[in-house]
Automatic annotation (TrEMBL):
GO MF terms, alphabetically ordered: symporter activity
Cellular component terms per the entry's GO annotation: plasma membrane
Family of the protein in this entry: Belongs to the sodium:solute symporter (SSF) (TC 2.A.21) family.
Membrane-spanning ranges: 6-28, 48-65, 77-98, 119-145, 157-176, 188-213, 233-254, 275-300, 320-340, 376-397, 403-427, 434-452, 458-479
Keyword set, alphabetical order: Cell membrane, Ion transport, Membrane, Sodium, Sodium transport, Transmembrane, Transmembrane helix, Transport
NCBIfam families: sss
Name this polypeptide is given: Transport protein
Entry's localization field: Cell membrane
Keyword Transport attached: yes
Membrane topology of the entry: Multi-pass membrane protein
GO biological process: sodium ion transport
Domain of life of the native organism: Bacteria
Length: 502
């Protein structure tokens, strides 16, 4: 397939965006340098709407920006029901999870695991998050660049260094406050980019919106009877909702990059508002991103043609560089990289918060007194950021993606089970460290078995959460007495009671 030139004007727009993001990091450097409360929590000074935008941008990566439209382009909107799970999750978060994170004034989510279970569970949860997100940084850089450079003549190594490198720098400088305000700009840009693609596509089709709807209905591009067929679990709506519910529950309860935002607002009421802001944004994502794929389906049915053997994972950047005017196309490509950068920056700051809080401050503070916590956090951001960038470049020039996918799969297997342990800790009094450790191990074994015998990642997520919760609870009945301790103030039934730290 002949690649399309990116053009000088597009490059100018993209570079202006990247420099602007760097400027945000520079602006917040002095405030972030004061202490870890500023670097990791922004001194709880972030407005609720901005924190909500940040949560949204963090959970929506560039991979999602391109894969969601591809899903509706090839199939239909069945997977959109997964987005609705957030409206079931938010009330649960507000009533049962956020109060504990706020009460304990945690910097990381895994501090709750220590108070509820033991330091062992805190270390396990934090370490697994760190390993997974170091690997994820590389993939979040690699995949959108592969898609964009497959349809344009942009140099992949150059763009990886520029996009990834500048992201590392502004995260290093501005701390979580710089990351959040960058997320706000990036979130607006990616929503605007999606809307622009829809508008250009509709205007280019004879008959406009009416033709798009007609094509979608005739091609079963919205919803169909097939989406309720349990014989095809990859498109079975009840499973999609359940699987996405458990995946999302992990993101919002056991994943530090999201939980960290709960402490950046002044009060729990503001945190609640930020979650509802994020829920509203998740709702408008449905017509924007699934609608984008439907519009592109109609466009390439009536107006344009795709090259022979075209890889549809690049359908969005291909439309952008071939159909959107110069300058504006650069802005939309910037939106794709914005989605990547918001995820990368959040991961890097969250990784540094885990290393500093869960390891340095908790276990090695007396040995590492010579280095300040903020300095160590910045060193961690540089080291992990450069490792992720270096790995993405290695993937771009080599053929090791399968090996790296295996690493992400292995470390990712522990994500949703950790959410099950959080749930067991909050919703049961009986669960203890003995049950949590063995429950995690058995859950991962069960998850691996299901993964090897199923084509649906949503089944894997569902099994991972349920088995983790059940195993943790049941095994805890057989724990030696030394693993049973006071949990008053740490469970749902005692949420309003005062917790006295041992």
């Amino acid at each position: 397939m002949t690649k399309v030139g990116f053009g000088t004007l597009n490059w100018v727009v993209l570079l202006v965006y990247l420099v602007a993001m760097l400027g945000v990091g520079v602006y917040f450097t002095k405030k972030a340098s004061k202490n870890t409360d500023a670097f990791f929590k922004a001194k709880s000074s972030i407005p609720a709407w901005a924190a909500g935008f940040s949560i949204y941008a963090t959970t929506l990566s560039a991979i999602t920006f391109m894969s969601t439209p591809e899903q509706s382009f090839l199939n239909d909107w069945a997977y959109s029901v997964g987005n609705l799970s957030i409206f079931l999750i938010i009330p649960i978060l507000i009533k049962y999870y956020v109060p504990f994170f706020r009460k304990l004034k945690v910097t990381t989510a895994y501090e709750y695991l220590e108070e509820r279970f033991s330091p062992v569970m805190r270390v396990i949860g934090s370490l697994l998050f760190i390993l997974y997100h170091i690997g994820r940084v590389a993939i979040v850089i690699y995949l959108p660049i592969i898609a964009i450079t497959s349809v344009s003549n942009i140099n992949p190594i150059l763009i990886a260094c520029v996009v990834g490198g500048l992201c590392i720098i502004y995260t290093f400088l501005g701390g979580i406050e710089g990351v959040i305000w960058s997320d706000v700009i990036q979130g607006m840009l990616l929503l605007g980019g999606a809307l622009l693609i829809i508008i250009v596509g509709i205007v280019s089709i004879k008959g406009g919106f009416g033709t798009v709807v007609s094509d979608a209905v005739s091609g079963d591009k919205f919803f169909s009877v097939k989406d309720w067929n349990p014989g095809d679990l990859t498109k079975f709506i009840p499973l999609i909702f359940a699987g996405q519910f458990f995946n999302t529950l992990y993101q919002y309860t056991g994943s530090q990059d999201v939980v960290q935002r709960y402490q950046t607002t002044a009060t729990q009421k503001e945190t609640n508002k930020s979650l509802w802001t994020n829920g509203f944004l998740a709702l408008i994502t449905i017509p924007l991103f699934f609608g984008m794929g439907t519009v592109l389906f109609s466009f390439y049915k009536n107006v344009g043609t795709l090259p022979h053997g075209f890889n549809t994972s690049a359908i969005v950047p291909y439309f952008v560089v071939t159909r959107i005017p110069a300058g504006i196309a650069g802005l939309v490509i910037a939106a794709i990289f914005a989605a990547a950068q918001s995820t990368i920056a959040s991961s890097l700051n969250a990784i540094s918060s885990c290393v500093v809080t869960d390891f340095k401050q908790r276990f090695f503070n007396h040995r590492l007194k010579s280095i300040s916590d903020v300095t160590l956090a910045r060193i961690i951001i540089i080291v992990t950021g450069l490792f992720g960038l270096g790995m993405s470049i290695y993937l771009l020039i080599g053929n090791a993606s399968k090996t790296w996918d295996l690493f992400l799969t292995v470390t990712g297997l522990f994500g949703v089970p950790i959410a099950g342990i959080f749930a067991a800790g909050i919703f049961t009094k009986r669960s203890n460290t003995f049950g949590a450790v063995l429950g995690l191990i058995l859950s991962v074994i069960a998850t691996v078995f299901v993964q090897q015998n199923s084509d649906s990642s949503l089944i894997v997520a569902t099994v991972a959460f349920i088995t983790s919760f059940i195993f943790t609870y049941l095994i805890s009945f057989f724990a030696p007495k030394k693993y049973v301790h006071n949990v008053v103030g740490l469970t749902a039934s005692t949420v309003k009671e005062t917790y006295v730290k041992s």
